[in-house]
Amino acid sequence: MANILVTGGAGYIGSHTCVELFNANHDVVVFDNLSNSSIESLNRVQELTGKSLTFVEGDIRNSEQLDQVFALHKIDAVIHFAGLKAVGESQQLPLIYFDNNIAGSINLVNAMQRAEVFKLVFSSSATVYDEANISPLNEDMPTGMPSNNYGYTKLIVEQLLQKLSIADERWSIALLRYFNPVGAHKSGRIGEDPQGIPNNLMPYVTQVAVGRREKLAIFGHDYDTVDGTGVRDYIHVVDLANAHLCALNNRLQNIGCRAWNIGTGNGSSVLQVKNTFEQVNGVPVAFEFAPRREGDVATSFANNQRAMDELGWTANYTLEDMLKDSWHWQKQNPKGYGDI
Ligand code: NAD
Ligand code: UD1
């Protein structure tokens, strides 16, 4: 049992990870500025697990707030989710993204160092891989310049953390490169609750199905893929949450800094996702074909062998599970946490 500081713990992936941390009998301190989340997610984490967490409303860019957390709680390791993630917004407001994601992460590791906490799991992304790599992507393939500023911040933070661990061998840092997180907790009580128009496929599909949006625009149907639409590696958020526990339990000891892909290893096209969603949930999803979206690649999926071998992690949920669970959450919470 350990005491884990979860930055960004009120968000989509963070809240699911808090549930799994409690299920594994860890203690949890959440540090979040609620800029893209609701405290209701944490109320529901506590309701689901019967455990109580410590919540600190604070910003990772604020050193005093961080120092106070480390002074008040004996933290064993940090899982760092806090950051901004809207790709389009990152193009319009790069400095805000550099500040939150890069400066915020530097500020966090500085506070960790002052508190002598050297175990860190960082939320990275498959977007750091060079676009010229052919899927399945493995961790030895080169990284490249991401097509947007959001992805750029992930690459920079990965590189900073790598250099930090070379300079000071007390650090053990797991970089988890997420593929495409979807799905929700089985209960339907917590899930993804994007603000405004969703950027990502799955929340768009569920919002069309629930009647909040008219139709899905499928970005491109002339890619060199099974049916012309983009192929991605969708991963259930509970499997993803468990990858953080596997990293904490099995690897955060003298590893320096190391990356692991967290994906299922299977690619699904946009049309396959839409059609399977309709089949398993019995609801129609109106759609139209639209031009390709700038910055998109045709195909991206993981080779996840390293995570299986080294973290002892496996993905247990199928695409059908992911689509059922996403719909269960959306149907029960048509306006997300805004329903309460
Ligand atoms: P999310 O927006 O739901 O959660 C992020 C949380 O961080 C939110 O609760 C937000 O309020 C908080 N936050 C943001 N800036 C902060 C700051 N300066 N100080 C304190 N808290 C702050 O996003 P998510 O989908 O749960 O993603 C979690 C992490 O995983 C992010 O770092 C994201 O970039 C990364 N990631 C997400 C995806 C994805 O598709 N969801 C894919 C790859 C990587
Ligand atoms: C996107 C981001 C990536 C980020 C990730 C997680 C871009 C170019 N990439 O990845 O940097 O790490 O989200 O936040 O924005 N699609 C549609 N219609 C939609 C939405 C998506 O057809 O309304 C298609 C896309 O073209 C793609 C697939 O669905 O083929 C998945 O898209 P999305 O969920 O946005 O994820 P990524 O593009 O993989």
UniProtKB/TrEMBL annotation:
Signal peptide (UniProt feature, chain positions): none
Molecular-function GO terms, alphabetical: UDP-glucose 4-epimerase activity
Cellular component terms (Gene Ontology): cytosol
Domain of life: Bacteria
Pathway(s) served: Carbohydrate metabolism; galactose metabolism
A Pfam family matched in the record: Epimerase
Protein name, UniProt field: UDP-glucose 4-epimerase
Source organism of this protein record: Acinetobacter guerrae
UniProt lineage: Bacteria, Pseudomonadati, Pseudomonadota, Gammaproteobacteria, Moraxellales
Gene: galE
